[in-house]
Amino acid sequence: MSSTITFDPKTEGPHIAHALQYFQYQLKGVSFLPRLPSGAYPQMPYEAITEEQYNALVAQIDRSVNLSTIPIGDHIPDKYCDSASCLV
């Protein structure tokens, strides 16, 4: 299991080491994201918003793109990439 865990640095932070030790064989990957009023990073992976904020953001989405023109299935070549190049 992989997960992102938000935590309160003051009250929950001291318990992270114990939690990692306790769940060490059940976790494939884990990320910890401190819950801070101003946010922990300039571009947070997610943030709490109100329903009104969500609706305002959704209203700004450009829906004029016709997704049916995007090729799918056999029309898209597979790309095999390494650190130096990508082969089509």
Descriptive notes:
There is one protein chain. The chain is 18% helix and 18% strand. The chain has one domain (2-37, 45-87). The model has no long low-confidence stretch (mean pLDDT 80). With 88 residues, the protein is an alpha+beta fold. The longest helix is centred in the middle third of the chain and has 9 residues, at 51-59. The chain is flat, with a radius of gyration of 21 Å. The strands form 2 sheets. A two-stranded parallel sheet has the order 1-2. Strands 3-4 form a two-stranded antiparallel ribbon. It has helices at residues 16-22, 51-59; strands spanning 2-7, 29-34, 80-81, 86-87. A hairpin with a 4-residue loop joins strand 3 (80-81) and strand 4 (86-87).
